[in-house]
Amino acid sequence: MFAPFLIGFLLASLLSPLIRLVSDKWKLKRSLVAVVSLLLCYLVVFTLIWFFGSRFIHFIQDQAGKLPEYYNNFLEPELVMLSDKILASFPDSREIVESLLASLENSMQAAIMEISGVVIGLGASWIVGFPAFLIQLIFTVISSFFFTLDYDTVIQFILRQFKPESRAMLVEVVTSAKTVIWKILRVYALLMTITFLELYVGFSVLKIPMASLLAFLVAIVDILPVLGTGTVLIPWGLILLILGNTYLGIGILLLYLIITVVRQTLEPKIIGSQVGLHPIVTLLCIFAGAQLIGVIGIFAFPVIATIIKKMNDDGTIHVIH
Fold it and tell me: Among candidates 257, 263, 281, which has minimal Cα distance to 191?
């Protein structure tokens, strides 16, 4: 409900240091600098969305249109081989097995066609939802202008709602959280890029069709530790081994092993070096956060641990206590 205002406030918070720097250095009126900065920010954002977003959507829709062809040329022959092996293993229940396999094949064909149609029809869905999006966008832009023009006034109002002894801790928590969150987002963007490149190279070497799209989808799954690349690559590799495609099956499993080792090695070290935590503490925070509250915990727990450590090092906790 309050998303447009929250986005507007966050945008004003991000631009505030730049606005203060420019207005102080060039002796310009703060309101003028704020308006110009916000206009330039929106210009850059909308240009990037238009330039890259349209190309990305076109790429996804183009690849989705090829899904039925991919199924017919790659998946269906493998399913036929699997069906023959299952039928050979259960000759006494041939009719039941054939019925189950036919039902499975029909379900997969229907799912492939449905996914392809949904992705291709995203453009039409976006047009239908555009009025609601436009309203959200208008309120976001308007609120961001008000927050940017009166940012210091808003901050002072918020701080006045707390006792004097609590204000220092609040400012310290917010400042540390912004720094740590930005660092962690950069780390996960780097890890996702590394995983995508590993998958793309691996799929290309193994000559798997639609390597770029598959690598991108699996990389998104990998960023979620509840799932991970193993959710896709392990069953895929095992099924290929059962079907007798030893080369491709072993290749997929080796690719999973390489990605897992690289991810588990780099993630604690990179995050720890960025946020100032020991790799063991970082790994503990990531695991505990994922187990307790899911994806949000992966980001929240290292941030909380870093803030507590920084406040303890600075003596803020002891002063407040």
Answer: 263
Instruction: Give the separation between CA 248 and CA 250, rounded to whole angstroms.
Output: 6
What is the Cα–Cα distance from 184 to 148, expressed in whole angstroms?
Answer: 26
Residues 304 and 321: their CA atoms lie apart, in Å, by 18
pTM for this model (two decimals): 0.61
| Residue pair 182/275 in contact by the 8 Å Cβ criterion | no
Please, are residues 285 and 302 in contact by the beta-carbon 8 Å criterion?
yes
Number of residues that make up the chain = 321
The angle at the Cα of 55, spanning 54 to 60, to the nearest 5 degrees, equals 100
At what angle are helices 3-26 and 30-48 packed, to 10 degrees? Answer: 120
The span from the CA of 187 to the CA of 202, in Å, is 22
Cα 74 to Cα 41: distance, rounded to the nearest angstrom: 46
Which residue from 287, 276, 62, 288 is spatially nearest to 179, judged by alpha carbons? 276
CB 226 within 8 A of CB 292: no
Instruction: Give pLDDT tens digits for 26-78.
Output: 888 888 999 999 999 999 988 888 887 777 677 666 766 676 777 677 767 77
**Distance between first and last Cα of the chain:** 36
| Residue 83 identity (one-letter amino acid) | S
